[in-house]
Amino acid sequence: MSTVILALAAGAVIGLALGALGGGGSVLAVPALIYLLGVTPVAATTASLVIVALTCAAALTAHARDGHVRWREGLVFAAAGIGPALLGGALAGHLPAAVLTVSFAVVAAGAAVRMLRPPSAGTLRGQPDGAVPVRPGRAAAAGAGLGGLTGVLGVGGGFLAVPALVGVLGLRMRAAVGTSLLVVTVNSLAALAMRTGTADGLDWAVTGPFAGAAILGAWDGRRLSAKLSGDTLRRAFALVLLAVAGFMLLDVVV
């Protein structure tokens, strides 16, 4: 019973962060599964993909209703990441637990540092559609990198997808946030397709409540973002993320 309560609490916090920040909350799913719920690193990255895919798909419907999803651009961007996501998903099951943990900690620390940087004026406002010339090579590279990251580490990558969609495809900020949910959902499902072996061993008594609470938390996060300063939310989340990354690295070393 205590495990289910922990799963619900962790899922609610992560969903809240995802809904409030438009991305990044799923980065905490893996360490929460490992250190709070006792899941192995390989199983945690697989469970995280399930949670991320379900949460983003649910949030995607709301953004689509508001007209904030650019389907053509999102699907093209996601298509570049499907192959790397498949390869990453297959590779993850063969990597040592310590390698996965260290890699995840490095990515989490990088995401935290990015969040602590003051956003540029263009990122805050978003770019007028078509203001940034789309370079197919850069778009494909960005999509492929995001797909590979999703496949190996089980993170959604929304904290990377949003700035990439703004800077590379020239989307407005709201459209970038909504379209990133489409990209992350596609990449997560592709990565899961290569993890059938590890998915069979998932503890659905933990993963189910975690995902359900994350979906509900994401809806509350959207309302929270309207009441609190975005800078305050980003800084608080980044500091938590840095602490988690440091703890994971220390755990591997010690």
The largest sheet, given as strand count, sense and whether it forms a barrel, is:
none
Average pLDDT over all residues: 78
Please mark out the parts with pLDDT under 50 across 5 or more consecutive residues, or reply none. 122-127
- Helix percent reads over 70%
Individual helix count? 12
Give the helix/strand class: mainly alpha
Dominant shape: globular
Taking all Cα atoms into account, the compactness measure Rg is 17 Å
Terminal-residue CA separation: 31 Å
Strand content: under 5%
How many distinct beta strands?
0
Helices and strands, in order, run as HHHHHHHHHHHH
Provide a descriptive summary of the structure in words.
- 51% of the residues are buried.
- The chain starts with a helix and ends with a helix.
- Helices cover 78% and strands 0% of the residues.
- It has twelve helices and no strands.
- The protein is mainly α.
Give descriptors for this structure:
254 residues; mainly alpha; 12 helices; 78% helix; globular
Could you outline the blueprint of secondary structure elements for this entry?
Blueprint: H1 2-21, H2 29-36, H3 41-65, H4 71-92, H5 97-116, H6 121-125, H7 136-153, H8 158-167, H9 173-193, H10 196-199, H11 204-225, H12 230-253
